[in-house]
Each structure stands twice: as C-alpha cells, then as structure tokens.
Amino acid sequence: MIHTSIKLLLSGILVLLFATKGLLAQTISVTGEVKTPLTLTASDLQALERAELTAKDRDGKEHRYAGVLLTTVLRKAGVTLGGELRGENLSKYVIAKAGDGYEVLFSLAEVDAEFSGRTILVADSADGAPLAQGVGPFRLVIPNEKRPARWIRELKSLEIRFAK
Description:
The chain is of the alpha+beta class. 27% of the residues lie in helices and 34% in strands.
C-alpha cells in the first residue's frame, strides 16, 4: 500500500515537472541593458509585426520561416537601435540562450539592419508549420551565414550587456 502511494506521488511530481517545463519553454525573456525587461509568450509574438524569409538550414534545404524580426523584439524592450545606436552603446551585445544552455553572441550593431543590412528572425514556424519539438517553439534564423551555428534552437532568452 505504501509503495503504491509513493509511486502515485512520484508519477504526479513527474507529470507536474514536464508540464511546467513545457510552459516555461513557451516564453522568451529579454533582460539586461533594456528599458523594459520582457517575457514574451507565443501569443505576444503573434501580436507583433510578422515577417517571413527564406533561408537554407544546416542540410542545405531551403525553408520558408515566419516569425518576428529580432530588432522588433529588442525595440519592444527599449534596446538602443537605429539612429540611437552610437557612442558607448556600440559596445553592447546580445547573448541569446537556448533551453539547453547553448549560447551565442551578437554585437548590437551586427543585428541592427541600419548597420549591417542583416535580417535576423525569431522564427516560430517553418514551411507553414510550427517548429518541431527540439527546435522550437522559437529559433533564431540568420540567413547568409556560412555556418548556421548561431541559428539557436529552443530560444529561451536574450540578454543585452555592455562589453565594458
């Protein structure tokens, strides 16, 4: 009888842990040197201006990705971009983190289209379907990089820091 109760309790705890992990994975936080720290849900991202682009992934296949421009997310958090990105603000950078702890770095000027002409997408779908488990719910897509090593899967957070 005690073993059965312990098994049921442990099963309940495991279900709760998996459910919580799933809920936490459905957000992106934007923190650090920002005016307004954010935690965005999938529906928050759906409400922002949408963008699409075509890019080749690691296997060389072309896919149509949809989501929100990274600069749109950063602007919502009050990150200095565009004409305001000058002086000491040029020493700021973005650390993008995945749920598994993988991290990649971009300078702010590198992600700002006014500086680099580059478009970086916080994608939530590919070829009209939500990103697969293990890739989504959010992924950075950076077209025209020779290696897609910074196409971070399971994007969890964006942290803005000063290099100084």
